[in-house]
Amino acid sequence: MTEPLAAPPPTLLDVLARPRGQALLLGHVHPDGDVLGTLLGLGLALEGAGWTVTFAGPHPVPEVLRFLPGASRWEVWSAAPRTFDVIALTDCPDHARTEGLLEQARAAGAHVLNIDHHPDNRRYGTVNWIDPSAAATGEMIHDLLGALGLPVTPEVALALFTAIHTDTGSFRYSNTTARTFRIAAELTAAGAQPALVSDRLYQQRPPGTLRQLGQVLEGLAVSDGGQVAWLTVPRGLVSESFMAAEDVVTYPRSLRGVRVALLFREEAPGMVKVSLRGKGEVPVNRIAARFGGGGHENAAGCTVAGTLDEAMAAVLGAVREALPSRAR
Question: Which fold does the domain 10-202 belong to in CATH?
């Protein structure tokens, strides 16, 4: 077995060590493989130990991730229909990303379990287990299940492997460690099926997806010095399902010489979502923090009020300021 980086806190183990009725596994907006894999993996393991588990969030499971065990049970809430004494959130640094569901679902005296590896986590839980040294929150859930003595079934293994796979950029990001691969190997031995994960994530695209990708890539722009590259997606250019399934910011990031890549997506009139990616030289989470966002040094995001042009001007200005002086 792999050694844990930071052991789960005793208070977390105390809450989960024995069944206490119903638990809500609560997701954030636009759930991705990181949050879905960890919530479903943890929830299915707890259910096997006697808990009654509900999976829910403000947005549905993207089609590309519906292969995950338990995904068909995901409930989409505009408002919480009831309250819970135990609520677990994973890979969610800011509880505002639940669009108010945490506050609505929280019973008086409830245990709110906040499990995450983002260094800028707001620590909003009654129990906070934040470990920025973990490459993925899926690694932490793997260790938590081990500490609780819960078996890793093939379904749990598949969910956690997917979470780690996506959280590390298919094991490409610089936070990927030897320990990450050891955990991935254990999950594979438990039934995770890496080929299935890759097939579902990357090899099940409908033909229209590539046409939409072509439309997005036509908007590629690169700074004069070649250090910054970005894409812009006006509202209505492509479908919501396409944006949920495709991590398009990886395309400008893949260019030689680029230090910071960005995606500007107009989510609503006067509201632009910005995704930032770095290559280890510019901490993009600090740039995102200037606009109320956050994330990791090499992967972060924020939402900016204004038009696409206004958001681009503001954020690209901040990026230029963050670049080493010789690279501006």
Answer: inorganic pyrophosphatase (n-terminal core) (3.90.1640)
